[in-house]
Design brief:
The chain has about 270 residues and is α/β, with parallel strands linked by helices. The chain contains eight helices and seven strands; from the N terminus they run βαβαβαβαβαβαβαα. Bound molecules: NADP nicotinamide-adenine-dinucleotide phosphate. NADP nicotinamide-adenine-dinucleotide phosphate binds next to α1.
Length: about 270
């Protein structure tokens, strides 16, 4: 990506966690930003801080990505600025329980935020990227994309849509010889506000030591570093890559795979 030419990076879900980390990192690289989420005050204070530090332009758009009029507002902003180099479809949330027990409105809203919005924003930025013959689209997946994951059924299904969508879209870009990179970023457990909701019982991740719990900065670092490499799926964290490999090759659940990887790592570090 061209650091000197200050194009825009658009990040959904920039009010916390991985989205906020993307905003901080891309601002430090000189990108102008469009930052989007519902919590306007958090976006405004982030914008004030980053403008002051990096002298960049930041557009704050308060939007609920389950709402048609809010998605249209973003599409209009994209057309108006006509200079987007990076799109990060990051906004997302989880639900608790088996599909049959989850309120259908929550599942439908999840489909709207993860699938409908990401697809529409991708469609909105692509003509600009195609014209410039450059750009990157990062769609947030999960370690379990493409695999069964009971208890997070719609979540994993929506992320698997993004994975399949990203792979096919990258093939289309390649067939047209376009220098546009599509990535599906598949973090494992990451220390954010994701689990700190009423729905998910205000969980903290500290005690789950069989997992490789990453910081949002580490996830973002690996994502951006991977944009120059081959491959659409990016799993940040070496332990996460081992966990996913066992899930794919041996059909293990995330929990089972994490336990096996932890046991192997402990044995390696302490052979006695
Ligand atoms: N944390 C993990 O362990 C983990 C693992 C794998 C993948 N992910 C994915 O990473 C992405 C970022 O999550 P995170 O971990 O950084 O969690 P987070 O701190 O809870 O951030 C989620 C972001 O999404 C925004 N958002 C949620 N619903 C929205 C809506 N209806 N309209 C607009 N914005 C909405 C939130 O903003 P507002 O509340 O201000 O609207 C917030 O900025 C998600 O797609 C998640 O699925 C997370």
């Amino acid at each position: 990506m061209n650091k000197k030419k200050k194009n825009f990076a658009l990040i959904t879900g920039a009010s916390s966690g991985i989205g906020e980390a993307f905003a901080r990192k891309l601002a430090s690289q000189g990108y102008n930003l469009i930052i989007i989420a519902r919590r306007k005050k958090r976006l405004q204070s982030l914008a004030a801080e980053l403008q002051e530090k990096h002298s960049i332009r930041i557009e704050v758009l308060a939007a609920d990505l389950t709402m048609e009029q809010d998605i249209s507002k973003i599409e209009k902003k994209i057309a108006e600025l006509n200079d987007i180099s990076i799109l990060v479809n990051n906004a997302g949330f989880g639900t608790r329980g088996y599909f049959a027990e989850v309120d259908i409105t929550k599942s439908v809203n999840m489909i709207k935020v993860h699938i409908i919005t990401s697809t529409r924003l991708t469609k909105a930025v692509l003509p600009q990227m195609i014209k410039q013959n450059s750009g990157a689209i990062i769609n947030l997946g999960t370690l379990a994309v493409g695999l069964p994951n009971p208890g997070v059924t719609v979540y994993t299904a929506t992320k698997s849509y993004l994975s399949n969508f990203s792979k096919s879209l990258q093939s289309e870009m390649n067939k047209k010889d376009l220098n546009i990179k599509i990535q599906v970023l598949c973090p494992g457990l990451t220390q954010t506000d994701f689990f700190n909701t009423e729905e998910l019982g205000y969980q903290t991740l500290d005690s789950e030591d069989e997992y490789d719990i990453q910081l949002p900065d580490e996830v973002v670092e690996e994502s951006l570093a991977s944009l120059t490499k081959e491959g659409v799926i990016v799993v940040p964290g070496s332990k996460n890559r081992k966990i996913r490999s066992l899930m794919v090759k041996e059909g293990k659940s995330w929990d089972e795979a994490a336990k096996v990887v932890s046991a192997r790592d402990t044995k390696k570090n302490d052979p006695e």
